[in-house]
UniProtKB/TrEMBL annotation:
GO cellular component: non-motile cilium; sperm midpiece
This protein's name: Cilia- and flagella-associated protein 69 ARM repeats domain-containing protein
Keywords tagged on the record: Coiled coil
Recorded coiled-coil stretches: 772-811
Gene Ontology terms describing biological process: positive regulation of flagellated sperm motility
Keyword Coiled coil: yes
Record-annotated Cilia- and flagella-associated protein 69 ARM repeats domain positions: 34-753
């Protein structure tokens, strides 16, 4: 017991702690930190400023201790030391070597002790990177080369640091973000001026700028703020045996164009010196570049030129002669030239030369945005060169010629360029017989010649194994040309049979059973548009359109409405067909009659009923003009839509939809709310009435053409609006407004005139003032009258509804009376059959009724016979058919109520509630 009470001996205390480092668990180098304050004081103190040996020893010791890289927290002191060495390197070259060693250490990743150090010291890192850029001022070639190597290592993180105990290196993403926030990119661009005579350092610096601008819009804009585009472009042709200067210059300019501010880039390149430099570089590479590298560099220069022209068409490409050189190189293969630049020049079939040809064609299109280039295009015979590609394709080629696939792609590219250039140089197009070439190519496209397209690149979409790509761009080009409405061009097309040729193709397309895709629909739209332009306002051409054209548009109008929402462009095809009717059918009585005979009006109204609102305007306009033919109106009146809908009902419904879209003030029944502005929509109301010049129409005038109400009013003027059939009361309420549309519009214009005079502080003479007041009062009274008429219609409809309701209740009440009568009749029957006295009374009433029905005066000259039936057991009156209630046969064991021998032979039996005819 005593032993248990003795205290336990204390646990011995460990007198030392064994660390991970002592156990050998930590890996990597341990940094032995140096007192930077002492080093800086040694370098800057006036008493020790001349102790160069001690300075060198201290710097070497610092470099030796931080061989794994500098800490983020020490960067301020590190760059103070670097700046001191940089400032003294002019007088004492011994500082250059330590500077180089310290810059080498800066190329290693900076070290952080904690994860938060990157955020804590971010501003210090930004300023440190800026200080690195400022060190380019040191006039030492070795320092500048090492500085370039350091900057490249920092941004690309190519240098792998050593493993350091208790520290982690910064990441490449962190370094890149800090570089973007510093001004080092701008500083390096400005330092290019210091390196004009040192090609090696300049190339190293260009590589760094290329890295900076590759994927960073921030760096690009920072470089542009230092005029990087102008500085680099103007000096990219400096002597360089290796050719790397031109290459890096092009890469940097391309990066600046893609990632930087394009407007600023275009402004800097908008100088005679820069454009001249681009021209010299491209000409040199074009005429003297033979290697694969040279051809790629040449193409890059052309891409850069194209981007420069596209972003700044006003740059001095014409003044420097660069535009003329580009036109020469684009056409020298197709158009013979004696210019020395192309005398011995020949493009091969290599991929680089093929790309060059396409880019040269493309740059012509980009150059054409500047009107001053058009004469140069004509002078360089650009249209002739491009039209040379409009010919039948071949399935084989000569060894030194484009392959069939290359020719097809170039051909399609040339035709696409002609869509832009031909309208600008229309005289050259006509001189080169462009229409003839197009129609011949179109004939080849629909012919049966054996050719299978390769369908390469963007322009060859949908053309693999067929000729659709050629046909598609042939029609695009024809559409671009006819869109000019040039009389000579269009007449030339008509004279060569374009109308008949296009109609044959369309007729074949509509009769085909193959489902159309988006490209087929696009080509058919183009053909319909071309026909519309050619036939518009020309009776002779409409006659050429004739029966074949009417058949084509009728087939399009019969298109299944479900196709309009498939996303293949059938809605555009339908609109093109309606426009074709407007331009090619209306105005020629023969075509109109054939259109009416083919039930074209019914099809147009069906389209109007089933289509969306944005297509209504065109269809209504077409119907309005078609109503100028008196034969059209009976077709309109005879039309019946879904649920026996009439044309008047459809037009009123479209009117209501249009006013809802415009925001016109109406109540739920369509009655006028604001008689002062009965037709004004929300947009017109928000715009208000402002004084306008005499040659500018007011909102009330432009409103007529901007919506469909005027067309609907015109159609009602043709079909009549006084007593249309098939309209509900709400539709009749709207029809009241439609009838007075013209009067309302006239009043709205007078209101605008009055308001403009008041805003301009002009008072009309007294008679005019009285006239304006009278017109205003008249318009107000008319609107009130219309409102009263609408309310009367609604009240009449309400009374009619009440009357119908009362009739319904009366019918229900009558049905209940018949039921009560049937019950009373049954009660009377039960009483007669169960009470003999009641039966006798009923018989007496029957006899009295019979006597009362007979004549009271008896003519003694004639004999009258008694027509009473003796032993008649019935006490009620009946007709020729009576209902007899009998006991069912199965209850009577098969016996019947029929006792007559004849009836028995005829197997006549009575069922319950059987009928007997009395003769």
């Amino acid at each position: 017991m005593a032993t248990q009470l003795q205290p336990k001996p204390p646990v011995p205390v460990v007198g030392h702690v064994i660390t991970d480092e002592e156990m050998g668990l930590k890996k990597g180098i341990k940094i032995q930190q140096v007192n930077f304050v002492k080093v800086i004081k040694l370098l800057t103190d006036p008493h020790s400023v001349a102790l160069y040996e001690r300075h060198n020893h201290a710097l070497q010791r610092l470099i030796r201790h931080y061989s794994a890289g500098f800490l983020l927290k020490d960067l301020v002191q590190v760059f103070k030391i670097l700046n001191v060495c940089a400032d003294r390197s002019h007088e004492q070259p011994m500082y250059i070597k330590p500077m180089i060693e310290m810059l080498k250490l800066c190329s290693l990743p900076f070290l952080r002790e904690k994860s938060s150090d990157e955020t804590t010291y971010s501003q210090i890192v930004i300023e440190s990177f800026s200080q690195l850029g400022y060190l380019m001022r040191v006039p030492s070639r070795e320092v500048r080369i090492q500085l370039a190597n350091t900057l490249e290592a920092i941004y690309t993180n190519n240098t792998k640091g050593l493993l350091v105990q208790d520290h982690q290196p910064t990441t490449r993403a962190y370094n890149a973000a800090m570089v973007e926030r510093s001004d080092i990119a701008e500083t390096l661009v400005k330092s290019l001026t210091l390196l004009e005579n040192d090609l090696e350092v300049k190339l190293r610096l260009m590589i760094i700028l290329q890295h900076f601008s590759s994927f960073s819009p921030i760096n690009c804009n920072s470089m542009l703020s230092a005029d990087a585009a102008s500085r680099i472009c103007s000096r990219m042709n400096d002597p360089d045996p290796s050719g790397k200067l031109l290459f890096h210059s092009i890469e940097i300019l391309w990066n600046l164009m893609e990632n930087g501010d394009r407007e600023e880039m275009a402004r800097q390149l908008n100088s005679f010196i820069c454009v001249e430099a681009l021209k010299d570089a491209f000409t040199q590479q074009m005429t003297n570049g033979y290697s694969h590298y040279d051809r790629q560099l040449r193409n890059d220069l052309l891409v850069l030129t194209t981007l420069a022209v596209a972003n700044n068409p006003e740059a001095p490409f014409i003044e420097t002669g660069y535009a003329k050189v580009l036109i020469l190189f684009a056409t020298f293969q197709e158009v013979r030239s004696h210019n020395a630049l192309v005398k011995y020049l020949k493009l091969g079939t290599s991929p680089e030369d093929f790309e060059l040809k396409k880019m040269l064609i493309n740059v012509l299109v980009v150059l054409s945005k500047e009107p001053a280039v058009i004469p140069l295009l004509s002078e360089g015979h650009v249209i002739l060169a491009l039209l040379s590609f409009i010919k039948n394709n071949e399935n084989s080629s000569q060894p030194q010629e484009w392959s069939p696939a290359q020719f097809e792609e170039t051909q399609l590219h040339a035709m696409s360029a002609l869509c832009t250039l031909a309208p600008l140089c229309i005289q050259d197009y006509m001189t080169c017989q462009g229409n003839t070439r197009l129609l011949l190519l179109l004939e080849w496209c629909v012919g049966k010649d054996d050719f299978a397209g390769h369908g390469n690149a963007f322009h060859g979409k949908g053309g693999r194994g067929n000729k659709r790509a050629q046909m598609r761009y042939c029609l695009h080009l024809m559409r671009s040309v006819v869109s000019l409405n040039d009389g000579e061009v269009n007449q030339d097309l008509v004279d060569q049979g374009a109308i008949n040729q296009l109609l044959d193709i369309l007729l074949s397309a509509t009769r085909s059973s193959i489902e159309d895709d988006a490209i087929d629909v696009e080509m058919q739209c183009d053909m319909l548009f071309i026909l519309s332009v050619l036939c518009e306002s020309n009776i002779h051409r409409k006659e050429l359109y004739g029966e074949k054209g009417v058949e084509v548009v009728l087939r399009y109008l019969r298109t299944d409405a479900k196709k309009l929402n498939r996303g293949l462009g059938h809605h555009r095809l339908m609109l093109a067909a309606v426009d074709n009717i407007w331009c090619c059918v209306i105005g020629a009585y023969i075509n109109e009659d054939q259109f009416l005979e083919g039930q074209g009006v019914f099809l147009l109204i069906d389209l109007l009923e089933s289509s969306t609102r944005n297509t209504h305007n065109l269809s209504l306009g077409c119907l309005t003009d078609l109503c100028e033919n008196p034969k059209t109106v009976p077709h309109l009146m005879a039309w019946k839509g879904k649920k026996e809908r009439t044309i008047a009902s459809l037009l009123v419904d479209i009117w209501r939809q249009e006013e809802t879209h415009m925001g016109v003030k109406r109540d739920e029944n369509g009655v006028l709310i604001d008689p002062a502005v009965p037709l004004m929509g929300s947009f017109q109301e928000e715009a208000g009435i402002k004084p306008l010049p005499a040659n500018q129409p007011s909102h009330a005038i432009t409103d007529i053409s901007e919506n469909m109400r005027a067309k609907i009013y015109a159609l009602f003027c043709k079909i009549g609006s006084e007593d249309p059939k098939g309209l509900s009361t709400e539709e009749q309420v709207t029809l009241v407004i439609i009838r007075r549309f013209l009067d309302f519009k006239e009043g709205e214009i007078w209101v605008e005139i009055t308001s403009e005079l008041e805003q301009e502080n002009l008072r009309p003479v007294t008679p005019d003032q009285e006239l304006l007041e009278m017109l205003s009062k008249s318009n107000q009274e008319m609107a009130e009258t219309i409102t009263e008429e609408q309310n009367e219609l609604l009240e009449s409809q309400r009374q009619q509804a009440l009357l119908e309701e009362q009739e319904l209740y009366s019918e229900i009440k009558e049905n209940h009376k018949q039921r009560e009568k049937s019950i009373k009749k049954w009660d009377d029957f039960v009483a007669r059959t169960s009470n003999y006295a009641i039966l006798k009374n009923s018989k007496g009433r029957q006899d009295v009724a019979i006597d009362d029905s007979r004549a009271k005066q008896i003519d003694n000259e004639h004999s009258f016979h008694d027509i009473d039936l003796p032993s008649l057991q019935t006490t009620t009156f009946q007709g020729r058919t009576i209902m007899v209630d009998s006991t069912p046969r199965d209850i009577l064991d098969g016996s019947t109520l029929i006792t007559s021998h004849t009836d028995a032979e005829n197997n006549l039996t009575l069922s319950k509630h059987a009928s007997i005819a009395v003769s």
